[in-house]
Design goal:
Elements: E1 4-15, E2 19-30, E3 34-38, H1 45-52, E4 65-68, E5 71-75, E6 78-79, H2 83-87, E7 90-93, H3 105-110, H4 119-124, H5 129-141, H6 157-171, E8 175-179, H7 187-204, E9 207-212, H8 215-221, E10 224-229, E11 232-238, H9 244-251
Parallel strand pairs: 3-9, 3-10, 7-8, 8-9
Antiparallel strand pairs: 1-2, 1-4, 4-5, 5-6, 10-11
Helix pairs in contact: 5-6, 6-7
């Protein structure tokens, strides 16, 4: 098996004749890493995530290749024929949560098994006791098991996002791609979502790539950050090296939407202090050692 969970080589994507969303992007992410993608609006973060997941094809005239665990997702602007099977190993968490509002929370989470069960069972919504138990365990991991019987429409944005993370756990994804999962959340909800992602990465060894607007969250939760500007990689290194001066040099006026004091990721913050300044950035990719998750207790009604 490849040592890289994700490998992107010479990825370019154009929209129309004059808009280059991604411009010759090449990155690798090792298994077990938690990596932040940062950049101002329109820098290419979401487009990159969608290409890694095989949801969008690159420009055909390029020699682009995207691989996950050594298997090709797309090459030369064509989605691989095996991409659908490979997607079962890739969990994508969107900013819009993508839950079915009229369904209960437990059902929204248990459908993470759809890629592993017969189509007819999924269509009829017939899930086994063990599959429901797995969903309850995943909800417990993100602190949402007490809401299992509620409709998704009754939950807050932060609660729905944690439910989306639980669904990716039920999917048994080996890579989590989170596309601005905290962009529309208040600081307390954002903290809980990022805590859940960090715990999954730390305890399960799942590779996590999360796109963020705020550098403070990248510095707090992700040892490594990849910064995009105008579709190009302009920084790839330790998150702690990102400082206000360097961000302003990279992004100019757009840096203001990225600069955010670390206390804003905590309850009761006051947005009147300046971010801490760190030394100049250098390129270094940290190692990770995954741990074994603790066993979860399952409420009795999950087996019904």
């Amino acid at each position: 098996m490849s040592e890289h969970a994700i490998a992107v080589d010479h990825l370019s994507k154009s929209f129309g004749r004059n808009t280059k969303a991604l411009d010759d992007v090449s990155i690798t992410v090792d298994s077990g890493e938690m990596v932040a993608l940062i950049g101002a609006s329109g820098s290419g973060k979401s487009t990159l995530i969608r290409h890694i997941a095989g949801l969008v094809a690159s420009d055909r005239e390029t020699c682009c290749k995207v691989q996950v665990f050594g298997e090709t997702v797309q090459s030369g602007g064509r989605i691989s024929g095996d991409a659908r099977q490979l997607r079962s190993r890739i969990g994508v968490i969107f900013q819009q949560f993508n839950l079915v509002n009229r369904l209960g929370l437990l059902t929204n989470v248990v459908i993470g098994v759809l890629g592993r069960i017969p189509t007819w069972r999924g269509t009829l919504g017939l899930f086994t006791k063990s599959e429901k138990r797995l969903a309850m365990e995943a909800l417990a991991r993100v602190g949402m098991d007490q809401y299992a019987g509620q409709r998704a429409s009754t939950l807050s944005g932060g609660q729905q996002q944690r439910a989306a993370i639980a669904r990716a756990l039920v999917q048994q994804a080996e890579v989590l791609l989170a596309d601005e999962p905290i962009a529309s959340l208040d600081p307390e909800s954002a903290r809980r979502v990022m805590d859940a992602l960090a715990e999954i990465n730390r305890e399960d060894g799942i590779t996590v790539v999360v796109s963020l607007h705020q550098v403070a969250y990248a510095k707090k939760y992700c040892p490594r950050t990849i910064a995009l500007r105008d579709g190009k990689v302009v920084f790839d290194g330790p998150s702690e090296r990102l400082n206000t001066e360097f961000l302003r040099e990279l992004y100019g006026a757009d840096s203001e939407e990225l600069i955010m004091d670390e206390t804003m990721s905590k309850p009761g913050y006051q947005p009147d202090s300046e971010p801490k300044v760190s030394p100049e950035p250098t390129i270094r990719i940290p190692a990770h050692t995954p741990a074994i998750p603790a066993k979860q207790t399952v409420p009795a009604y999950a087996a019904e």
